[in-house]
Amino acid sequence: MNKLLLAFLLLLGVSSCRSSKLTAPIFTKAPKPQMLINSVRNAQFDTELFSCKISGKYKGENQTFSFKGSLKIHKDSLIWISISPGLGLELGRFLFDEDSLYFMNRFDKTYFKSSYSDLSEKTQSPLSFSRIQALLLGNSMSKFEERKYHSEIENQAFTISSVSEKQLKKISRSRRKPDETYFTATVDPYTYRITSQGLSNLKLNRSLSIFYEDFEIHDTHNFAESIDFRILANASLSLNLAYSKINLTKKLKFPFKVPKSYEVIY
After folding, report:
1. What is the rounded (10 degree) CA torsion for 113, 116, 97, 1?
2. Are 177 and 194 within 8 A, CB to CB?
3. In the chain, which ranges are E strands?
4. Over the stretch 229-245, which tens digit does the pLDDT of each residue have?
């Protein structure tokens, strides 16, 4: 599996700044978990079509590179990403549908396809179409249905998590940690948009953290135009994305035709 594909899969596996006002309310406690969950759901970025230009930087232990490209999303159906290192030459193309991920490497002339269940097993990260779509749009990766959730307040921001701070400290001190993935999100108390979210597994010593910045209004909703992905596992990796030329009405095409000469990789 080539380095670009591996880096992207691993990453799939800074709170926004706000000017203070004298009239701004001071929060002393967080809403109850279900109330906070409902507010986050109501504030999520919901659009049938989404397209934009992207620019980014990937940083690994032994490799760093910058890139540009395009991102297209058809809600709950398709995600299409084209990556270029510059000079107008396409490096690779990703296509996600509800069941599988497809990747075409233009430089190596290779092609890769895998189900999310296989990818989750290989990367030890819970991957799915809905989770990838959510993290790209700044919505919650959790559907808030699997377990009991906890809400707290920290530095005038709300947090919602699948484990309380007290429980997390107890688990951290335990020698036999459960093989369980925990979800945590930080929520802006004014807009109820997620400013950071993450998944962590203490037994595997793995964590994925995502930070959303540079919020702008698009179709009456606050949307983060900068995203910072960080993963800590056997190696530390990071990916920074910046969105521009966002369009929510343009009709989209998702071209993905693999030449017969391309080699299939597994």
Report:
1. -30
2. no
3. 49-59, 64-74, 78-84, 92-96, 100-105, 110-115, 150-154, 157-161, 182-187, 194-201, 206-218, 221-232, 236-247, 263-265
4. 998 877 788 999 999 99
Residue (of 75, 207, 57, 70) closest to 139 by Cα position? 75
Lookup: tokens for 249: 């009405």
**Taking residues 240-264, what's their average pLDDT?**
95
194-201 vs 206-218, strand pairing mode: antiparallel
Q: Name, in order, each residue with C-beta under 8 angstroms of 145's C-beta and a sequence gap of 6 or more.
A: none
- Token look-up 């919602």 returns 160
CA geometry: angle 217, 47, 116, nearest 5 deg: 120
Q: Is 160:33 a contact under the CB 8 Å cutoff?
A: yes
User: CA 98, 10, 14: angle at the middle one, nearest 5?
Assistant: 100
User: What are residue 179's phi and psi, to 5 degrees?
Assistant: -80, 80
Q: What is the pLDDT of residue 16?
A: 34
11 close to 5: Cβ distance less than 8 angstroms: no
Domains observed in the chain: 30-265 (2.50.20.10)
β-bridge partners, 77 = none
The per-residue pLDDT for range 186-225, each reduced to its tens digit, is 999 999 999 999 998 888 888 889 999 999 999 888 999 9
86 burial via Cβ count (<10 Å: 0-12, 13-18, 19+) = exposed
Measured distance CA(153)–CA(234) in Å, rounded: 32
Largest Cα–Cα separation, the chain = 65
Strand-pair partners of 55: 68, 242
Neighbours of 243 (CB within 10 A): 22
